[in-house]
Amino acid sequence: MKVNFEHGCLELLRGDICQEKVDAIVNAANAALAGGGGVDGAIHAAAGPTLMEECRLLGGCPTGETVATGAGRLAAKWVFHTVGPIWQGGDSGESKLLASCYQTALALAGQLGAESIAFPSVATGVYRFPLAAAAAIALGVITRHLKTNSPPFRIRMVLFDPTTLAAYQNALGQFLDPGQAIVIN
Ligand code: APR
Q: Among residues 4, 15, 17, 55, which is most buried (max CB within 10 A)?
């Protein structure tokens, strides 16, 4: 599904983020940028060894922040490595840190001039952030961004399984204006 905003569009789809033809692909990394399973493992496998070489040079990334590398063999220009919070029950600043993942990734895209970006569902896998809450945080930040006139203008949430896609679809309504059209494709 797709929703148009004054300055861009948001797409929610089921898919493998490694296949995305966008300027920047976001990776759900860990603070050591050491690679791992889940989407991190899939992106490193698809991009090839140069991604890990670049990550080693960066030396890490604090939780809630985002750093950029090249994208190796992927079609994208950059991989943005963002570090979600490990869920610890909700009283350790997890929500703010997750919002910051999306905010810092969008700000970095703006600085680099990335016009399109694809996000996975950050922190809802190995890091166990509750899905409905994570979807609302992600879509709140993204829909606010799309009301400003700054890149990226095309934002894709690429969700790996039907349960995750449904959670994001359910959360979307609260961020739309009355009468704002959702295009189903
Ligand atoms: N494309 C899109 N989404 C994917 C893909 C893929 N190819 N593979 C997995 N996912 C989804 C998962 O199904 C989940 O919905 O990405 C979401 C995030 O899950 P994780 O990859 O486990 O990320 P996260 O919860 O942020 O945990 C990060 O996991 O792999 C390690 O190194 C990583 O330590 C870090 C931690």
A: 17
